[in-house]
Amino acid sequence: MTTLGPIRAPLALLVVAALLLAACQGGGPTTTNPIGQIGSDQPDPNGELITNLGSEPDTIDPHKASFVGEIAVVMSVFEGLMTLDPKTLRPVPAAAAKDPDVTPDGKQWKFTVRDGLKFSDGSPLTAKDFERGFLRTCDPRTAGDYAFVLYVVAGCEKWNTMDVRKASAAELDAAKRAVGIKAVDEKTLQLDLIEPAAYFGSIAYMWVGMPVKQESLDKGGERWTEPATYIGNGPFKLTSWKHNESMVFERNEHYWRGPAKLKKWTRVMLNEGAVAFAAYRNNEIDTLGVSAEDLRTIESDNELRSQMRDVAGSCTYYIGFNSSRPPMDDPNVRIAFARSFDRDGYIRDIQKIGAAANGGFIPPGIPGYDKDDTAQRFDPAAAKAALAKSKYSGQAELRSVKFTYASSSRTKTRVEWLQQQWKNNLGVEAIPDPVDSTAYTQLVKKLETTPLMFILGWCADFPDQQNWLTTVFHSTSTVAKTGWKNAKYDELVRQADRESDKAKRDQMYLDASRMLSAEAPAAWLYYVTGKIMIKPWVKGVTTTALDSVLGQFRMWEVYVTKKG
Amino acid sequence: MATATRPVDAQTRSIELNALARRQRSLWQDAWLRLRRNRAAMVGLVVVVVACLLALFADVIAPHDPLDVNAAKSMREPPWGDPKYMDPSHPLGTDWLGRDILSRLVHSARISIVIGFVPAAIVFSIGVTVGLLAGFKGGKTDNLLMRFTDVIYAFPDLIFLIVVMTSLRETEFGKVLGGLPLMFVAIAVVSWSGIARLTRGQVLSLKEREFVEAARAIGASPTRIMARHLFPNALPPLIVATAFSVPTYILYEAGLSFFGVGIRPPTPTWGVMIFEGFSVFSTSAWPTLLPALCISVVMLAFTFVGDGLRDALDPRMKL
Amino acid sequence: MIRYVTRRLLLLIPTLFFVALITFALAHAAPGSPFDKNPDRPLPQETIERLERLYGVDRPLPEQFVLYIGNLLRFDLGSSLVKDRSVADIIGSQFPVSAQLGLQALLLALAVALPLGVISALRHNSALDYGSMAFATLGTTIPSFVIAIFAIYLFAVNLKLVPIVGWGTPKHMLLPTIILSLGAMAFLTRITRASVLEAIGQDHVRTARGKGLSEQTVIVVHVLKNAMIPIATIVGPATAGLITGSFIIETIFNVPGLGREFVLSIARRDYPLIMGVYLLYAFLIAVANLTVDILYGLLDPRIRVS
Asked: Which A residues in the span 344-403 are in contact with C, Cβ-Cβ below 8 Å?
């Protein structure tokens, strides 16, 4: 071909396509089909909800679950002895008939199972099923990520850390029998702890203590989590699982609170946020987790904006300091850094979806949140004063400090913003030090390699101060190696861990939390919050900071209104 | 009987013969002339040259630093977009992180050109050598080399590339120069077998020709025969194949970036820009559309050049 | 012929072995452990080591490889390290989806490309010819993911012609199938057109015309038969192209196929799944190439003799 013909045609097609698409972009068509605006508020008894689960869960075995998507499924199909009160996030009885009986020394807990409980296939539910569930979590062969929360139970840690390949069957069996989890009769489950743990009630709501039928495990074997054998006692049952595509749940007629208002709940698996957003606008899914990229489109559309809600989160991100290395071994320096950046500005300009960490370590929504903790509030004058008081004032160590982070464009923005803040408000140069993310994860695991300054986050495993103040900042912590040691703090939090009186406990943790903020082994950066979109015909949703799934703690109340 | 129209004397005759001798064109000059007449190929060539220039002078041409993140200027529109979000200092708008799109496009040309040409050169060297050896030596060498080539040929390209890039990206070698050498090597490893087979085929058919026999007769060494006689004559289809392979490599890079295993951030490439633009598509199509346009135009250009080269170098295709 | 086929089948074994070896080496060359999967909640080092021991990932690599090959020969592909299922299970539930998508795309490509190519060649230099050539050129130069992104936004979001979520009904499969077939369709159109053009110019065709056979007979009997040969050879690479294209299409259109699963498994270092899927694909492509070679042998008697 020697003429220009062959070029003209394809290029023309390209340009036309581009223009066509661009034209369709701007200001788009109606984003939602208004369904029954004058519609009733009446729950549709055959109501069906469609939500996005995200990616296919790796496992929905309650004793192996660790990701949000997995926990979401478990909490829909199973129910533990306790659940959480949506307002306070304190444990309240669920499958248990009443609050647990705890011996005066705090080391033995007895749960009484409610009368008349049934699994979704109609078979009766007893304490033995709960015993089986708890034991399964401690079983080294299950290898669940959350076994550690049960280490406070006698014998669990020993059994769980045995090497399955080397230990003999007899040894494993002996270790199992030595675990302090026993169904003393049909209705009573007894747990023996190694020390008092007032927070154990919170653990009893978690997926680690879900009951499971022996028959399910026997019949299903490795594949017991397929719908046919995945029998639970929660508000819904799993009726269909098309791998990588969708999961369908239907109301459990045998649920003790009565059948859930929703008849059917379909959860699809859309990995890409952009695709999920498109699906939401198409009314193909009824709820959506908002990503920052979608904000502009949502906020410029009245209808979309009216459907957006804020939800609390259960994570705090912080700037960690290596307290074993100069100049961060001086608390004055740490506090100076903590008080010299504007958290509100950070949210407004950089984070966009999140809440400024203008309190302590524990985020809003989690018991122990302290909004009056002012130790780290933004105050450049106070920061400079603290710096002047430090023994490194004017020394070489304060001229520049390295700020290490897992390399990504987004984190780079955050780090550079902070760098600017410290330059302006403190006069110290923080040098961004990006490292590859796999390397970063390794670095922060050992004190010797922990960087001088770094960013990390912590999310609640269960809603109790213990999970934050002790687990993360006690000097023997296995999850954060900041090199910070304070004997008074250590003693205070351990005392609180063992204290049975709720009011005393809360006060101790509060004091410890204030001490923590003042000593500043880390500077609290932001509390994770989210925004979700809910279609107007979805009602009865109660959100909490710990939701893995929509309305998790009042799932049976969610309903959709009759369409038109 | 026609009369001669010009006086034929010895001097004029010799001048004419000389002129004829000079005008006798080699295959290459002939091919070049034919290529020049092919307008599509010429336009393609111009585009390629422009792209190379952009790549070379990216630092000078780009108005901003392509890596300069500026959260306050996120998602600015180009002049034909939503006027509420326009910013004249960014002629084509900005992406989600506030980086100037025009600058990123221009700098991306660098990577794309390089990803196109360098592996092509490597593939050419390896493939031709193997093919020459196998075809010429024949026998056991041929057998061995060809078995090996066949196995490599059977490897599904992009899948293998994905596995290689994912595995080796985090190693020391993978981190050199943003992962560029790793990608060169990976692409080359996957692609050389095609050229090798082609060369071998060419050599097999040329081997029995007279000029090879003649060269052998005068005692030329095998290396000399391969280099001076076989290679130049086998060249035309190899050139065409190489020309067509360049857009394939550019596409590989884009595909790999799409799966998140391409060049390491923060280096911009068109593939990376498309991938990043996907998540903001609902707000604005331009961060995705513009790099897509760039890739398509460059690939089109190379295709036209390839087509043109094939038509020019293939004496059979007399239109 | 039989010998030729047997020889090629036997060649498959060392090929696959080599593929397995290289993939294994690569998969394990990547630093990082498959058990450190949640970056927001890094496990303590002791836990990771315990998990590695449990799954046998801590054993020396050659030992792991030998074990793997041994299992392979018993058709045991192992268990996923990340998911709670066996590799065979995952492949079994996701591969049919990809296979269906791929086959539909191939058939669609053939159904459009063959007639289009033939007609374009017959009506050489007409408007239709230029049009189809433009389409073919665009189809092979614009990256498929670009077309896919645009398609999903144009047809699903803006025009609401097809749903975004789900799989199984024709409405769901329509757009992914079309987009996936475009690349092969464009390529096949070009090849068909070129080979028909070449066949038309051949001597034996002119002879047939000279003999006075009707145009119809000429085309069908002589032109097409010879044109089929180069087309048949393309089916091999086309299959490979469809497989790799499926990764992209499945990711963008959210199709629950094996391609999408594969892409996800790589980032998570799920070695058994990576190996299993890769071997499967290598096997399929090898079979496709073999089929093509056999077809080629059948169609072109000259090959059979060599």
From this structure: none
pLDDT in tens, B104-135: 999 999 888 898 899 999 999 998 888 888 88
Q: Read off the pLDDT of residues A406-456 as tens digits, 9 standing for 90 and up.
A: 877 778 889 989 999 999 999 899 999 888 777 787 788 888 889 999 999
pTM over 0.90: no
Considering the domain boundaries, does residue B175 fall inside one? yes
C-contacting chains (≥3 CB pairs under 8 Å): A, B
- Is B9 a domain residue? no
Which of C28, C142, C153 has the CB atom closest to B281's CB atom? C153
**Separation in Å, CA of A521 to nearest CA in chain B:** 29
pLDDT reported for residue A38? 41
Distances (CA, A) of A111 to A101, A127, A205, A396, B192: 7, 9, 12, 60, 69
A164-200: pLDDT as tens digits: 888 899 999 999 999 999 999 999 999 999 999 989 9
pLDDT at A37: 40
Burial category of A563 from C-beta neighbours within 10 Å (exposed 0-12, middle 13-18, buried 19 and up): exposed
CB contact under 8 A, B247 and C141: yes
Contact B163 C23 (CB under 8 A): yes
* B289 → chain A, closest CA residue: A18
Q: What is the ipTM of this complex?
A: 0.80
Cα angle C156, C157, C158; round to 5: 105
pLDDT band at A119 (very low <50, low <70, confident <90, very high): very high
Domain ranges of chain C: 2-73, 95-305
For B278, which of C149, C243, C263 is closest by C-beta distance?
C149
Output the pLDDT for position B63.
84
Q: Is B47 on the interface with A (CB under 8 A)?
A: no
Stretch among A150-164, B80-94, B157-171, C220-234 having the lowest mean pLDDT: C220-234
Q: What angle do CA C161, C165, C166 make, to 5 degrees?
A: 110
How many C-beta atoms lie closer than 10 Å to residue B72's C-beta? Answer: 7
B242 in any annotated domain:
yes
Scanning C75-169, the segments in alpha helix (DSSP H) are 87-122, 127-141, 144-151
**Contacts across the B-C interface (CB distance below 8 Å):** 104
Q: Which residues of A280-298 are buried (b: 16+ CB within 10 A; e: fewer)?
A: bbbebbbbbbbbbbbbbbb
| CB of C244 closer than 8 Å to CB of B159 | yes
Peptide bond into A43 cis (omega under 30): no
| Phi/psi at A308 (5° precision) | -90, 135
Mind telling me how many Å the CA of B207 is from chain A's nearest CA? 33
Contact in structure between A265 and A46 (CB atoms under 8 Å): no
pLDDT at position A16 is: 53
CATH number of the domain at B135, please. 1.10.3720.10
Residue in B147, B158, B278 closest to C244 by CB: B158
The CATH H-level (homologous superfamily) assignment of domain C95-305 is MetI-like (1.10.3720.10)
For residue B118, give its domain range: 33-312
What local confidence, expressed as pLDDT, does residue C301 receive? 60
Q: Which two tokens stand for residue C248?
A: 């992209």
Distance (Å, rounded) from C-alpha A36 to C-alpha A564?
4
Residue A248 β-bridge partners:
A240, A266
B243 is a domain residue: yes
Please tell me the distance from the alpha carbon of residue B117 to that of residue B135, in angstroms, as a whole number: 26
Closest-approach residue (CA) in chain C for B295: C142
Supply the pLDDT for residue A357: 93
Per-residue pLDDT averaged across A288-298, rounded? 87
Nearest to B300 among C141, C146, C243 (CB): C141
pLDDT for residue A125:
95
Domain count, chain B: 1
Q: Which string of DSSP letters, residue by residue, matches A357-417?
A: --S-SSPTTSTT--TT--TT---HHHHHHHHHHSTTTTSGGGTEEEEEEE--HHHHHHHHH
